[in-house]
Task: structure prediction
Amino acid sequence: MQSLPTNIIGNMVNHHIILDIAQAEQHFWSPQLNFRIEEDEDDASKTVIAGIIGPKPTVWTLFVFIYFTVGMAGFVMSSYAISLKMMGEHSNFIWGLPIAILFMLTAYKAGKVGEKLGEDQVELLKGYVRDAINEQHYLPVA
Result:
């Protein structure tokens, strides 16, 4: 069986595996690979590997928080401004929604830049798993 390279850290709980980049090479946009290994329900002689690779949970949480907070603020400010407009008054809060959309687009673009920054590490993790699967595939089954 293949051992982990020095730049990858792994944890395994039952049939769930988490692979991270080593602390020395980690940055905010470093990816995490989560996958599970299970017996195929239809064919017991086969194994199913399913997983996801992406930013760490803290990064996901940050972006959800940004989108939710900015979206709600834009919605509330715009709703308030539209209510005032319907009563014949004027409010600069009408700019809340376009500004919120601009902030969300900026967050989206930041996410895409981060995706590019972590691209090499994503390929490192995927390559390790592919090599490990291919190595295990050719071992004789006892």
Summary: The mean pLDDT is 87. The longest helix spans residues 57-86.
